[in-house]
User: Fold this.
Amino acid sequence: MSLCTALRRFVEAALWICRTGAPWRDLPEGLGCWSSVYHRWRRWCLRGWWELVFEALGPALPADGLLLLDSTTCKAHRAASGAAGSTAAAEALGRSRGGLCSKLHACADGAGRVLRLIASPGHHSDLRYAMALASGIPARDAALDRGYVSAPLRAAFAAEGCTVHTPPKRGMVDPPAWDPVLYARRHYVENLFSRLKDCARIALRRDKTRRSWMGFAHLAATMINLRIAEFSHRA
Assistant:
Protein backbone atom coordinates (compact mmCIF):
# COMPACT_ATOMS: atom_id res chain seq x y z
CA MET A 1 0.00 0.00 0.00
CA SER A 2 1.38 3.41 -0.99
CA LEU A 3 1.95 6.15 1.59
CA CYS A 4 -0.84 8.30 0.14
CA THR A 5 -3.31 5.40 0.15
CA ALA A 6 -2.43 4.50 3.75
CA LEU A 7 -2.80 8.12 4.86
CA ARG A 8 -6.15 8.43 3.11
CA ARG A 9 -7.43 5.26 4.79
CA PHE A 10 -6.27 6.54 8.17
CA VAL A 11 -8.15 9.84 7.73
CA GLU A 12 -11.25 7.95 6.54
CA ALA A 13 -11.05 5.75 9.64
CA ALA A 14 -10.80 8.84 11.87
CA LEU A 15 -13.79 10.39 10.10
CA TRP A 16 -15.80 7.18 10.55
CA ILE A 17 -15.15 7.22 14.31
CA CYS A 18 -15.92 10.96 14.44
CA ARG A 19 -19.25 10.63 12.60
CA THR A 20 -20.54 7.47 14.26
CA GLY A 21 -19.22 8.00 17.78
CA ALA A 22 -18.42 4.29 17.95
CA PRO A 23 -15.69 2.85 20.21
CA TRP A 24 -12.34 2.32 18.49
CA ARG A 25 -12.72 -1.47 18.77
CA ASP A 26 -15.77 -1.28 16.46
CA LEU A 27 -13.76 0.17 13.58
CA PRO A 28 -14.50 -1.85 10.39
CA GLU A 29 -11.64 -4.08 9.26
CA GLY A 30 -11.65 -2.40 5.86
CA LEU A 31 -10.42 0.82 7.51
CA GLY A 32 -7.48 -0.85 9.24
CA CYS A 33 -6.58 -2.46 12.53
CA TRP A 34 -8.34 -0.49 15.26
CA SER A 35 -5.36 -0.46 17.65
CA SER A 36 -2.95 0.81 14.98
CA VAL A 37 -5.37 3.52 13.89
CA TYR A 38 -6.05 4.54 17.50
CA HIS A 39 -2.37 4.85 18.46
CA ARG A 40 -1.64 6.83 15.32
CA TRP A 41 -4.61 9.09 16.13
CA ARG A 42 -3.28 9.68 19.64
CA ARG A 43 0.18 10.53 18.33
CA TRP A 44 -1.31 13.12 15.98
CA CYS A 45 -3.39 14.58 18.82
CA LEU A 46 -0.46 14.80 21.24
CA ARG A 47 1.68 16.51 18.59
CA GLY A 48 -1.09 18.96 17.72
CA TRP A 49 -1.15 17.89 14.09
CA TRP A 50 -4.95 17.97 13.70
CA GLU A 51 -4.92 21.60 14.78
CA LEU A 52 -2.10 22.31 12.31
CA VAL A 53 -4.12 20.71 9.51
CA PHE A 54 -7.13 22.82 10.52
CA GLU A 55 -5.08 26.01 10.48
CA ALA A 56 -3.34 25.18 7.18
CA LEU A 57 -6.63 24.53 5.35
CA GLY A 58 -8.63 27.29 7.05
CA PRO A 59 -9.37 30.81 5.77
CA ALA A 60 -6.64 33.42 6.10
CA LEU A 61 -9.11 36.27 6.75
CA PRO A 62 -12.75 36.37 7.92
CA ALA A 63 -15.34 36.78 5.17
CA ASP A 64 -16.85 40.30 5.08
CA GLY A 65 -14.65 41.27 8.06
CA LEU A 66 -17.26 39.74 10.39
CA LEU A 67 -16.65 37.60 13.47
CA LEU A 68 -19.34 35.40 15.02
CA LEU A 69 -18.63 34.04 18.51
CA ASP A 70 -20.67 31.52 20.45
CA SER A 71 -20.42 28.25 22.36
CA THR A 72 -22.26 24.96 22.66
CA THR A 73 -22.42 22.48 25.52
CA CYS A 74 -21.59 18.82 24.82
CA LYS A 75 -22.67 16.11 27.22
CA ALA A 76 -19.85 13.88 28.46
CA HIS A 77 -20.17 10.09 28.33
CA ARG A 78 -19.25 8.22 31.50
CA ALA A 79 -16.11 6.98 29.70
CA ALA A 80 -14.86 10.58 29.41
CA SER A 81 -13.97 10.92 33.09
CA GLY A 82 -10.93 9.57 34.89
CA ALA A 83 -7.97 10.59 32.71
CA ALA A 84 -4.83 9.25 34.40
CA GLY A 85 -2.52 11.83 35.95
CA SER A 86 -4.81 14.75 35.15
CA THR A 87 -7.77 16.71 36.49
CA ALA A 88 -11.26 17.30 35.16
CA ALA A 89 -10.57 21.01 34.65
CA ALA A 90 -7.38 20.29 32.68
CA GLU A 91 -9.36 17.97 30.40
CA ALA A 92 -12.15 20.56 29.86
CA LEU A 93 -14.72 18.71 31.96
CA GLY A 94 -17.08 20.38 34.40
CA ARG A 95 -20.50 20.00 35.99
CA SER A 96 -23.44 22.20 35.07
CA ARG A 97 -27.16 21.68 35.63
CA GLY A 98 -27.09 19.04 32.90
CA GLY A 99 -24.37 17.01 34.61
CA LEU A 100 -20.81 16.34 33.45
CA CYS A 101 -20.13 18.18 30.19
CA SER A 102 -17.68 20.20 28.13
CA LYS A 103 -18.11 23.44 26.23
CA LEU A 104 -16.92 24.09 22.70
CA HIS A 105 -16.31 27.77 21.96
CA ALA A 106 -16.16 28.74 18.29
CA CYS A 107 -15.23 31.79 16.24
CA ALA A 108 -16.73 31.78 12.74
CA ASP A 109 -16.73 34.30 9.92
CA GLY A 110 -19.50 35.77 7.77
CA ALA A 111 -19.51 32.71 5.51
CA GLY A 112 -19.88 30.23 8.37
CA ARG A 113 -16.28 29.00 8.19
CA VAL A 114 -14.55 28.03 11.43
CA LEU A 115 -11.69 30.32 12.43
CA ARG A 116 -10.87 29.03 15.92
CA LEU A 117 -12.07 26.47 18.47
CA ILE A 118 -11.47 26.37 22.23
CA ALA A 119 -12.60 23.74 24.74
CA SER A 120 -13.54 24.54 28.33
CA PRO A 121 -15.32 22.92 31.28
CA GLY A 122 -19.08 23.02 30.83
CA HIS A 123 -19.74 25.45 33.69
CA HIS A 124 -17.43 28.21 32.39
CA SER A 125 -19.03 31.37 30.95
CA ASP A 126 -18.80 32.37 27.29
CA LEU A 127 -17.43 35.81 28.14
CA ARG A 128 -14.35 34.27 29.72
CA TYR A 129 -13.08 33.04 26.32
CA ALA A 130 -14.17 35.88 24.02
CA MET A 131 -10.79 37.59 23.73
CA ALA A 132 -8.93 34.30 23.26
CA LEU A 133 -11.31 33.37 20.41
CA ALA A 134 -10.89 36.65 18.55
CA SER A 135 -7.24 37.42 19.37
CA GLY A 136 -5.12 38.13 16.30
CA ILE A 137 -8.01 37.85 13.81
CA PRO A 138 -8.53 41.15 11.93
CA ALA A 139 -12.19 42.13 11.68
CA ARG A 140 -14.42 45.20 11.40
CA ASP A 141 -17.49 43.84 13.16
CA ALA A 142 -18.38 41.13 15.67
CA ALA A 143 -21.91 39.80 16.25
CA LEU A 144 -22.25 38.33 19.75
CA ASP A 145 -25.23 37.24 21.82
CA ARG A 146 -26.22 38.66 25.21
CA GLY A 147 -23.82 36.32 27.00
CA TYR A 148 -21.01 38.58 25.82
CA VAL A 149 -22.46 41.90 27.01
CA SER A 150 -19.53 43.61 28.72
CA ALA A 151 -18.17 47.14 28.58
CA PRO A 152 -14.51 46.01 29.01
CA LEU A 153 -14.95 43.48 26.19
CA ARG A 154 -16.49 46.10 23.92
CA ALA A 155 -13.60 48.47 24.69
CA ALA A 156 -11.01 45.74 24.01
CA PHE A 157 -12.58 44.97 20.62
CA ALA A 158 -12.78 48.69 19.79
CA ALA A 159 -9.05 49.04 20.52
CA GLU A 160 -8.49 46.45 17.76
CA GLY A 161 -10.73 48.38 15.35
CA CYS A 162 -13.69 46.00 15.72
CA THR A 163 -17.26 47.08 16.54
CA VAL A 164 -19.33 44.74 18.70
CA HIS A 165 -23.01 44.24 17.82
CA THR A 166 -24.92 42.79 20.77
CA PRO A 167 -28.57 43.41 21.70
CA PRO A 168 -28.76 45.10 25.10
CA LYS A 169 -29.97 43.27 28.15
CA ARG A 170 -33.42 44.12 29.47
CA GLY A 171 -33.36 47.23 31.64
CA MET A 172 -29.83 48.16 30.57
CA VAL A 173 -29.05 51.85 31.15
CA ASP A 174 -27.65 53.72 28.11
CA PRO A 175 -27.28 50.63 25.87
CA PRO A 176 -24.67 50.88 23.09
CA ALA A 177 -25.71 51.01 19.44
CA TRP A 178 -25.89 47.77 17.48
CA ASP A 179 -26.82 46.65 13.96
CA PRO A 180 -29.74 44.17 13.88
CA VAL A 181 -28.92 43.20 10.26
CA LEU A 182 -25.38 42.14 11.16
CA TYR A 183 -26.61 40.45 14.31
CA ALA A 184 -29.08 38.38 12.27
CA ARG A 185 -26.11 36.74 10.55
CA ARG A 186 -25.35 34.90 13.80
CA HIS A 187 -27.32 32.02 12.34
CA TYR A 188 -24.09 31.01 10.59
CA VAL A 189 -22.41 30.10 13.85
CA GLU A 190 -25.56 28.32 15.05
CA ASN A 191 -25.56 26.32 11.80
CA LEU A 192 -21.91 25.55 12.39
CA PHE A 193 -22.66 23.94 15.75
CA SER A 194 -25.41 21.88 14.12
CA ARG A 195 -22.90 20.53 11.60
CA LEU A 196 -20.29 19.86 14.28
CA LYS A 197 -22.84 17.99 16.40
CA ASP A 198 -23.79 15.82 13.44
CA CYS A 199 -20.54 14.11 14.44
CA ALA A 200 -21.59 11.86 17.32
CA ARG A 201 -18.08 11.82 18.80
CA ILE A 202 -18.35 15.59 19.36
CA ALA A 203 -21.99 15.83 20.41
CA LEU A 204 -21.47 13.15 23.07
CA ARG A 205 -17.91 13.36 24.33
CA ARG A 206 -16.40 9.91 24.90
CA ASP A 207 -12.72 10.92 25.04
CA LYS A 208 -10.96 11.16 28.38
CA THR A 209 -8.48 13.82 27.26
CA ARG A 210 -9.06 17.30 25.89
CA ARG A 211 -6.47 16.73 23.16
CA SER A 212 -8.29 13.70 21.72
CA TRP A 213 -11.71 15.38 21.83
CA MET A 214 -10.36 18.55 20.21
CA GLY A 215 -8.66 16.41 17.59
CA PHE A 216 -12.11 15.28 16.46
CA ALA A 217 -13.41 18.86 16.65
CA HIS A 218 -10.57 20.18 14.47
CA LEU A 219 -11.01 17.33 11.99
CA ALA A 220 -14.75 18.00 11.67
CA ALA A 221 -14.16 21.76 11.41
CA THR A 222 -11.62 21.20 8.63
CA MET A 223 -14.14 19.17 6.63
CA ILE A 224 -16.79 21.87 7.14
CA ASN A 225 -14.43 24.58 5.89
CA LEU A 226 -13.47 22.52 2.83
CA ARG A 227 -17.12 21.92 1.92
CA ILE A 228 -17.98 25.62 2.25
CA ALA A 229 -14.96 26.52 0.10
CA GLU A 230 -16.01 23.95 -2.53
CA PHE A 231 -19.58 25.24 -2.72
CA SER A 232 -18.47 28.88 -2.86
CA HIS A 233 -16.18 28.13 -5.82
CA ARG A 234 -19.01 26.36 -7.65
CA ALA A 235 -21.31 29.32 -7.10
In short: The mean pLDDT is 93. The chain has nine helices and seven strands. Residues 56-234 form a domain with the Nucleotidyltransferase; domain 5 fold (CATH 3.30.420.10). Residues 210-234 form the longest helix (25 residues).
